[in-house]
Design brief:
The protein is mainly alpha-helical. The protein is 70% helix and 0% strand. The chain has one domain. It has helices spanning 13-33, 38-53, 55-59, 64-80, 83-88.
Amino acid sequence: MLQGIRRIVAITGEEAAAAIKEGETLANHLAAAQKLQGSDLEKEVAALKQVSCHEAFATGPMASHEKLHVHVMLFLLLLLLPIHTLLVCSHLW
């Protein structure tokens, strides 16, 4: 029996460039969101959450470690919101 065999999927060319650009764009949005407060932060977290929950994000060509980074950063941004905002705004989680 063969053990430890893994399938490697790679993207190249324009698709790879698009994936890199998408990752950089999300990283920039996450970095900018860390500087926001109050309703501005709430709006940005909601927008970023919509992007990260979209099927295109889940199945897209972005590297899995970058997708994990986006989810972790969103979680940390949620921690910056006041608890009453989280309780009232269930759309954020």
